[in-house]
Every structure is written in structure tokens, then in C-alpha cells.
Fold:
Amino acid sequence: MALGLRLWRPRLLPLIFGSVVFAARSEAQSTMPCVAVDSSAYATTRFADSSVWFRNEHRAFVEVYGYYALTESDYRTRSKTRPQGCFRRVPLYDGCELLQSEVDWPLRAKLTLSEADSLVHLLNDTSSYWPDGESACMFLPRHHFVFHNGAGEIVGHIALCFQCFELGASPRLAIDVPGALRKPALRWLESLCERHGLFPPNVRDASWLYFDYMR
Structure:
């Protein structure tokens, strides 16, 4: 039996060593091209705008597009929720770009004007929020709604974080947002995103905290 073990081990060691080297090379090849810039840093650059136009009765937009995004922290994690594929950069406007996995699709989705009006109405309704809710985590918006006027210019941007249940808006909303979004508002927003394919597998995996909360 001892002789059998001595003969078996030398054959096994190259296989083990080769597997380790291959895994290390695969990990290096998958991570090195995917050094990402945190999209949340870009998404907040214009949220200091103090003007107000997000009102249904004064619609300043004719087209609204929804986007999904990933963050640098999503790519750096070693957990099973790490995105598949390397990232692509999706520019929204000067000083704002998003990160998406190259394996996710579509790049964006166009909302109907009825959906856009409902979105604006929901976010301008104080009953959509907890009166003094505290956020569950840091603000990492993975969903974005960009508003265009008749000339094709971007006139507004709403960034939504399904992890802390908060949002950023530029220009600001017509109300002072009191706290985090309540479950009914979150369910409506989730339904809107699902309907337009804005929860592709990588984004869904990264938003696990939200889905655990909504169970």
C-alpha cells in the first residue's frame, strides 16, 4: 500500500500544480482588463443643481431612457456575485458615464411618456418615502433614467439605488425627499425596470440585498 502511494503522488503533483497555475492565469486574465471606474462617482456630479423641473404639469422632456449599471465594487468582489465578462463604458453626458458588463443586453431602454409621467409622479409623492428613513448602505446607483427635450438635449437625470433605496435627481425633485423609498414604490420601480430588461443577470446578482429585503 505504501509503495502504491509513493508511485501515485509524483503523478498527482504535476496535475495539482498545473491546475493552480492555470487558475491563477485565468484569474489574472479575467481581472486585469476589467479595472473599472466607479460609476457612482460620475452619477453624482450633477446632483447639486438647485433648479426644479420634475413636475408633471410642466413636462420639459419628450424622451426618457432607462439604463442599468455596475460599480467598481461589483467588479472587485471575489464573491459569486462578481459580474461575468469585462466592462464597457456607456457615456451619458460630459462628466457622467456608466459601467456595464459586456455580456449584458440591452444597453438602454426607452420608456413611454406615460411611464415617464408615472415615474415623475411617484418620485414627487411624499407617500413614496419613509418620513425619516435611514439608508441601508452607501449610495451605489445601478439604475438611471435620463430625460431628453425636443432638441435631443439631456435635461434631467435620476439615479436609483436599489441597495440603499434612495435616489439622486438633477435637477432636483419638486419635493424635499424625506427618506428612503417604501416597498410599494420600490415594487413599482422594480416592475418598470423588469419590463424593460433593466435587471440583466449581472445587475440582478449585484442587487441581492434588495431582493432579500423584498421577500
The chain is about 35% helix and 20% strand. The beta strands are 52-54, 63-68, 87-93, 96-101, 109-111, 143-148, 154-161, 166-170, 172-173. The radius of gyration is 22 Å. Confidence is low (pLDDT under 50) at residues 1-50.
